[in-house]
Amino acid sequence: MRKYFAKRLFVNDFSVSPDTSVNSYDSKIHTPSLCYNVKSKKGLLGCGNGITHLSLPRTRDNPEEYIRGSSGNVNILKTWRYKYFSHVNNRDEYMLVCFASDNKLYFNNMTFPDPSYHLVTNKTFTSTPTAITFRANGDDVIAFSSPTDDMVVWYTDNNPYTVEGAPRFSSICYHNNRLFAIDAEDPSVVKYSALSNPLDWTSSSGVYSSGSITMNDYKGDLRSVISFDNYVYVFRDYGISRILSYAQDSVFACSNIYTTSSKIYADTAVVCGSKIFFLQEDGLYAFDGYFVSKVDLSFSDLITSTNQSSANACFHDGSYYLACKVDFGDTLEGEQNMQNNALIEFNVTTKSANITRGVDIISMTSVKDVLINRIITTIRGSDYVWYITSDGKINSTSVMPKKWRSGRIHLGNFDKDKILKKVYLTCPCTATLKVTTDKMEKSETLTDKTGFQRILFNVTGREFVFEVTSSDSDFCIGNVELYFAVEK
Fold first, then answer.
1. Which residues are bridge partners to 481 per DSSP?
2. Delimiting residues of CATH 2.60.120 domain(s) in the chain
3. What is the pLDDT along the chain (488 residues), one digit of tens a residue?
4. What is the 3-state secondary structure (H, E, C) of the chain?
5. In what order do the strands lie in the sheet containing 431-437?
6. Where in the chain is the domain with CATH 2.130.10.10?
7. What does CATH list as the number for 4-47+403-487?
8. In 10 A of CB 259, how many CB atoms?
9. Minimal CA–CA distance to 340: which of 312, 381, 302?
10. Rounded to an integer, what distance in angstroms lies between the CA atom of residue 313 and that of residue 285?
11. Is the entire prediction scored with pTM above 0.90?
């Protein structure tokens, strides 16, 4: 007759950073092999991030009153925050500028918003522009440039105008009183404006002149320029180059910093405090201006197994947010045509991460000022502007499906049978707890109850996988106790 001894496991904290390696060894019970749309809150497993239509303060004096707005009959593709000093109102003002599917620019005042957006200009772009804010002629302006269109500059108190002689750019940044940009017609060239006159691209007056820098080597095309830590960095298909510029003259030193055989997704390169984080084909990386190091992301294989050409990122409140394609091993309803199906939130200090599933984010903008503190996003196929929430819902109504699955649990005895007798937990919501072993599978429905619940399982096996799923808006599970009988 087989003899058993009792063993009890406690789960008093839930990790929400999936670790795909736990499927190959005796994992810790609180470490998931896969999870999404959940977060750990004071030891409990609860709802993760959500996303909803952007709402803006109705007035500057009462920022708690919000008004929603959509763009109308066109889809929003990209957004920018435009801060400027208004000479008319004699104070700082804030605009939200959008690029829409009709290839036109729209805006809405972030302090006195209207229910709908207004045209910036009747100009129709032929490709998606990039935008940047800087001072020109005593005004805080925002400039738009695309690979196929002339640069358009706008100061909100005046009409937009086209910059004569400006090249067409695919990426642009402001550094040491100049604009630096990648030439769309020749992606091996960085062009720079005249010193202290970012709108002058034709000057040849000595040390103040505009000019260009050619990087024609094996690192591939130039994709993104970023001003960071006293330098301009150029992210390329297969490397990073650095431009040292001196504010006093037009002498530049160019050096190659990093070379890789794995393609860099330049749209994911974002300054995150003292480092730039970016995604490349073999994983997530961090760059401090001198050295590149791979980030130990425990579920890296879920994002390196697919093309990430649509991935984009932003930095907000200490976390790097990456909209990308994640290989979950299945397809949920509505995901078939998504180019990005997830949002990864990675805290650059604690190195913890969580995954939001079911959102196809085209672009993100971090907005943190006296009025609002949000990540503003655009969603593929939507005529609304959105922002990231913490309620686990889409547009505050549709609950996002939640899943948390453990790794393989052996209790330190790979060749011994175990019996999961019962489970105690708190669950003031509706959820399903499934236990899968190498011999059988059993699911139990958890109902909304106060206090501890006891669920009898009596499932046998040598290894166990625990999975919780829920579509409850009040999802919360904690204080889990697992009672086993283990063969001696």
1. 10, 424
2. 4-47+403-487
3. 678 889 999 988 899 999 987 665 556 788 899 999 999 988 899 999 999 999 888 777 776 667 777 777 899 999 999 999 998 889 899 999 999 999 999 998 887 778 778 899 889 999 999 999 999 989 999 999 999 999 999 998 788 999 988 889 999 999 989 999 999 999 999 999 998 899 999 877 777 889 999 998 889 999 999 999 999 999 999 999 999 876 556 678 899 999 999 999 999 999 999 999 999 999 999 999 999 999 999 999 999 999 999 999 999 999 999 999 999 999 998 899 999 999 999 999 999 999 999 999 999 999 998 778 999 999 999 999 999 999 999 998 899 999 999 988 888 888 889 999 999 999 999 999 999 999 999 999 999 888 899 999 999 999 999 999 999 999 999 999 999 999 88
4. CCCEEEEEEEECCCCCCCCHHHHHCCCCCCCEEEEECEEEECCEEEECCEEEECEEECCCCCCCCEEECECCCCCEEEEEEEEEEECCCCEEEEEEEEEECCCCEEEEECCCCCCECEECCCCCCCCCCEEEEEEECCEEEEEEEECCEEEEEECCCCCCEECCCCCCEEEEEEECCEEEEEECCCCCEEEECECCECCCCCCCCHHHCCEEEECCCCCCCEEEEEEECCEEEEEECCEEEEEEECCCCCCEEEEEEEECCCCEEEEEEEEECCEEEEEECCEEEEECCCCEEECCCCCCHHHHCCCCCCCEEEEECCEEEEEECCCCCCCCCCCCCCCCCEEEEEECCCCCEEEEECCCEEEEEEEECCCCEEEEEEECCCCEEEEEECCCEECCCEECCEEEEECCECCCCCCCCEEEEEEEEECCCCEEEEEEECCCEEEEEECCCCCEEEEEEEEEECCEEEEEEECCCCCEEEEEEEEEEEEC
5. 32-36, 402-406, 464-470, 431-437, 441-446
6. 50-398
7. 2.60.120
8. 14
9. 312
10. 13
11. yes
Name every residue whose Cβ is closer than 8 Å to that of residue 347 and which is 6 or more positions away in sequence.
318, 319, 353
Give the type of residue at 22: V
The arrangement of strands across the sheet holding 130-136 comes to 130-136, 139-146, 149-154, 161-162
Burial of 309 per CB tally in 10 Å (0-12, 13-18, 19+): exposed
Smallest Cα–Cα separation from 477: which of 485, 488, 469? 469
Contact by Cβ (8 Å): 216, 240: no
CATH architecture of the domain with residue range 50-398 = 7 Propeller (2.130)
User: Token pair for residue 173?
Assistant: 């940044």
